[in-house]
Amino acid sequence: MLNETIISICMLAIRQFKDHLPLDGLTHVKRIRKDEHGNYAIIVCLRKHLSDISELAMQEWIKNQPISWEYLGNLYIVQVAATSALTRKQFEVASKYWPISFYEDKRISTAIEGKLFNQEVIQNIYNNMDIAISTALENSMFKIGAVMVDPESNKVLAKASDGRSRNVDSSLLKHAVMTCIDDIGKMHVAVENTNNSSKLPNEESNNQRGYLCTGYDLYVTKEPCVMCAMALVHSRIKRVFYAVEDKEYGALGSRYKIHVHEGLNHHFEVFKNIYRDRCLQLQ
Amino acid sequence: MATTGSNSNEWMEIAFELANEALVAGEVPVGCVLVFGNKIIGKGRNEVNEVKNATRHAEMVAIEEAYKWCENNQVRPSVAFSNSQLLVTVEPCIMCSMALRYLHSEAVGLYYKFILITFRLLIADQTVPGLEAERAVTLLKKFYLGQNPNG
Predict the structure, then answer these.
(1) Would you call B105 an interface residue with chain A, using a CB distance cutoff of 8 Å?
(2) Does the residue A16 lie in any domain?
(3) Which of A6, A73, A78, A275 is deepest in the core (most CB within 10 A)?
(4) CA A100: distance to chain centroid?
(5) Which of B27, B47, B59, B132 is catalytic?
(6) Dihedral sign (CA A69, A71, A75, A78)
(7) Which of A163, A109, A156 is nearest to A141 (CA)?
(8) Which residues, listed in sequence order, are joined to residue A217 by a DSSP beta bridge?
(9) B107 interface with A at CB cutoff 8 Å
(10) Domain named CMP/dCMP-type deaminase: which ranges (chain B) (predicted)?
(11) In this predicted structure, what is the pLDDT of residue A17?
(12) Average pLDDT along chain A, 283 residues, taken 10 residues at a time
């Protein structure tokens, strides 16, 4: 058969499949592939749609679908990637099973290659975590420390240790991150009060920065919990760097992924394992 | 879902007054009261813009006030919080929900009676008609039709 004819038949089949047998949730999966022998194969439908019927009944069922079958060969089952590929490596592995589409996220690729930060920035990151560790040691019960930094100047704006104790009647919500955010708010209020007294016309950009932690980075020795992670979303944090994951309560990767939750209106980047070994000893 | 007791209408009314106060102050109109032993031990309204702190939701403000009440009245916070009811005009966010969970679960373990009365639950509960939800939503609409000075 001429190549053109095959392609037009395939196109027709794909169009029909799309309408009648959609691959729900698998938009990254290509409907058709051409193998090394030049043979075409098309995905008819998902196996789960037919999970309760036998192979024979399946063939019968498919033949009853409103599609022209005369040029199509045998049916068989293939495995496809359940989710879209985030990295080139994932794309390469997934493509061995069945072709998928891939839009490379340059930022993720750069991060994987270890080229996201230059040496100077890396040094700053470690230095800031070092400050968080020193801050953590200020509380004898929960050795957790948080530091808010303006990455543009690498200036430390606030630092806080965990204010809790083991006593159930102490302030249970004084987590280091919450206190750090509180301090930033107080700082902004203080700045505004100073500005109001000397009314600088040029302060609009400062006011636009407003009450939030927009553009700031947070360094914390332990992965933030749900409350703190959501507080960081509310505060429009830029990035979070943490040392040790918290399998039980961690909300930035371990237990939940609040920072990339689709239902929330602000997302941010999270980096972990900065001085992990040192911070493990804090606990 | 337990009911909130005979004074719940009155308390909810105060929560709405607080929400209104927030609106007048240019804040997202949410108000709440924390009730313990038939007494309000903490009141709060959104004060995010005022104190430039995005975590100052009504619930967090009320909790802080309740801690002070406990100190002044020599009541153990673990006892007060775990036997409290929170009446709030809008369903708490993830941050506040977690804060509330910390307060009861870490305080007394299994036997908590911390009841969240959100406008959504009020309808489900039929303790107060949907009128309350409408009021809360109307307040929010008033706010969002205006402009949040800080986005």
Answers:
(1) no
(2) yes
(3) A275
(4) 21
(5) B59
(6) negative
(7) A163
(8) A149, A239
(9) yes
(10) 6-139
(11) 73
(12) 66 75 85 84 78 69 67 80 90 94 90 91 97 92 95 96 86 95 93 70 47 91 96 96 96 94 92 95 84
Calculate the alpha carbon distances from A270 to A148, A152, A273 in Å. 14, 18, 10
The answer to whether residue A96 sits within a structural domain is: no
What is the C-alpha to C-alpha distance for residues A67 and A13, in angstroms, rounded to an integer? Answer: 7
Distance of CA A16 to the CA centre of its chain: 35
- Domain shared by A1 and A126, yes or no: no
Q: Count A/B contacts: CB-CB distance under 8 Å.
A: 77
Cα gap A111→A86, rounded to integer Å: 12
Q: Which residue has the tokens 């500005």?
A: A195
Query: CB B54 to CB A169 under 8 A?
Result: no
Q: Which one is predicted more confidently, A125 or B85? A: A125
Q: Are residues A63 and A133 in the same domain?
A: no
Residue A135 sits in the same domain as residue A246: yes
Both A229 and A277 in one domain: the answer is yes
Q: Which residues of B touch A234 (CB under 8 A)?
A: 54-55, 93, 95
Is B59 designated active site?
yes
Would residue A106 count as lying in a domain?
no
Q: What is the CATH number of domain B7-144?
A: 3.40.140.10
Q: Is residue A230 part of a domain?
A: yes
What CATH number has the domain bearing residue A178? 3.40.140.10
Q: Are residues A45 and A182 in the same domain?
A: no
| Residues A138 and A221 reside in one and the same domain | yes
Cα maximum dimension of chain B: 44
Query: Structural domain tally of chain A?
Result: 2
DSSP 8-state code for residue A169 = T
Strand order in the sheet with B84-88: B39-45, B31-36, B84-88, B115-117
Whether B95 and A211 lie within 8 Å, measured CB to CB: no
What is the per-residue pLDDT for A146? 98
Task: Give the containing element (helix H, strand E) for A41.
Answer: strand A40-42
With an 8 Å Cβ cutoff, are A181 and B54 in contact? Answer: yes
Could you tell me whether strands A217-222 and A269-271 are parallel, antiparallel, or unpaired per DSSP bridges?
unpaired
Output the pTM of the full model: 0.78
- Taking only the tens place, the pLDDT of each residue in A172-194 is 999 999 999 999 999 999 888 88
Range of the domain at A3: 1-78
Looking at the predicted complex, does its ipTM rise above 0.90?
Answer: no
Tracing tokens 């070092």 back to the chain, one arrives at A130
Give the CA count within 13 Å in the CB-facing half-sphere of B85.
Answer: 19
Nearest to B134, CA basis, from B125, B122, B116: B122
